[in-house]
Amino acid sequence: MTRPLPARSPLAGTWRTTGVGAWLVLLVALFSVAPARAQIDAATAETLVKRSGLWEAMASLGPQVRAGMLQSLAQSPRPPSAEAQERIGRVIDAAFAPGPLRAACIAVVAAETPASAVAPLQAWLQSALGQRLTEVEVAASRSTEPPETAARAGAAAYQAATPARQALIDDHVRTTRAPDLMHEAMVATALAVARGVAAANPELPRPSLAELEGFLRGQKAQAMPGMTMFMTAGTARTYASVPDAEMAEYLTFLKTDAAQQFNDAAAKGLIRAISEAGEAMGRNLRGASDAARS
């Protein structure tokens, strides 16, 4: 449903296949995260990341990026050989390995989460409903269902829902700022990969990063309706088994200062992790191509 990136962008097609779990919905705002004194210690930040489900979501990100990238390459006019696709897959696996993703994210969560938010966050995440909803979100992030299939099912679920249910779904999308954050994820990742490609291949002609960023951000207004539809369908699909009363209780929590502060910190942390992984992937993609082996 999203507007594709320019054909020369190495990320064209990738984000169409990255799933619709809630922590991927929440994943991102593009921030320049300067070094900062930790507000909470790393062990506490790691506990929050684990209990929130973000830890598990990061484990599933690499396979999703691999599947999306290889699907995009296979549909190109001159797809790489099977051997090159396997080499490219290994590059992606290494760049998006869970360990480095988690370490980068946790460092930012520790720096950005206020200490005052920890107690209410822990109380929610350890509650029966909090744990049950985390399980729902983790299951969604692990889903191997084709995204187009999931989107159609989610759209059908939304259309069949009662007005009250639709209002809860719409409120969730607004509260999490999902469409805006998805767009920022695409921009940040595309720029990160482009930086990596440029660093590894300085002799190749290419548009400047400023030009690429200007193009991507210039498409936001056109992309937002489709992204909003996609995220609305994804929310309907992810929480299909959650009763209205529990969704309403979840939204009450998501609107608290503690939840907003943690979600902002987690978004910054995950976009930093994804950016670093994307840049590493970009640096190594050329060496995996058929041309590099000829």
Which key phrases capture this entry?
single chain; 294 residues; globular; mainly alpha; disordered N terminus
The tally of helices reads 15
Strand content: under 5%
Mean of residue pLDDT values: 81
The value of Rg in angstroms is: 19 Å
Which shape, going by the Cα principal axes? Answer: globular
The main pleated sheet reads as: none
Ends distance: 37 Å
Content-based structural category? mainly alpha
Low-confidence stretches: 1-37
Task: Tell me about this structure.
By secondary structure, the protein is an all-alpha fold. The protein is 72% helix and 0% strand. Helix 2 (42-52) packs across helix 5 (98-112), helix 9 (163-176) crosses helix 12 and helix 10 packs across helix 12 (220-238). The longest helix is centred in the last third of the chain and has 29 residues, at 257-285.
Q: Any chance you could write out the topology, listing elements then pairs?
A:
Layout: H1 22-25, H2 42-52, H3 54-74, H4 82-95, H5 98-112, H6 118-125, H7 128-142, H8 147-160, H9 163-176, H10 178-200, H11 209-218, H12 220-238, H13 244-254, H14 257-285, H15 290-293
Task: Summarize the structure in short.
By secondary structure, this protein is mainly α. It is 72% helix and 0% strand.
